[in-house]
Amino acid sequence: MKLDRFATIIMIIAALLVPAVGAQETGSHTYIVTPAGDTMPEDNPLFMPMNIGSIAQGETDWYSTNVAAGKTELIVDLNWGDSSDSLRLTIYAPDSVIGPYYDAYDGVNGRIYVRIRDSNGLYPGTWQFAVYGDDVAGTEDYTITWR
Questions:
Q1: Fold for the domain defined by 20-146
Q2: Residue range 87-111, pLDDT digits in tens
Q3: SS3 sequence, 79-139?
Q4: More exposed terminus of the chain, fewer Cβ within 10 Å: N or C?
């Protein structure tokens, strides 16, 4: 019994040390999702468009962008800055659902900042982003950008 608890504790610690990387395979596409960190690509450091929103508990706001054929990376930055509230981000590619991602995903409170990659190219077409008020007192202002 004591050994089982020890093994469980070791497994939990090991899981916490593994970087947050997820792979989602959908036919010919394998999306690798990682926290985007603080680095910005040198070829296009600007995120456009910047959308400003406000959300309450239980509400969902929707955004979309067109992903061109041959694009291999999409970075999405949902930032609300107030760690007392929690938002959730779910990404809808034309061929799959990616997420949901919560505040703790990238280790930064008040922000969900993800990089989605596929070396064969992302599925082209309309990608949608659902911002959900997961645990919000009153209303929470936020920005969402993608590149």
A1: Jelly Rolls (2.60.120)
A2: 999 999 999 999 999 988 777 789 9
A3: ECCCCCCEEEEEEEECCEEEEEEEHHHHCCCCEEEEEEECCCCCCCEEEEEEEEEEECCCE
A4: N
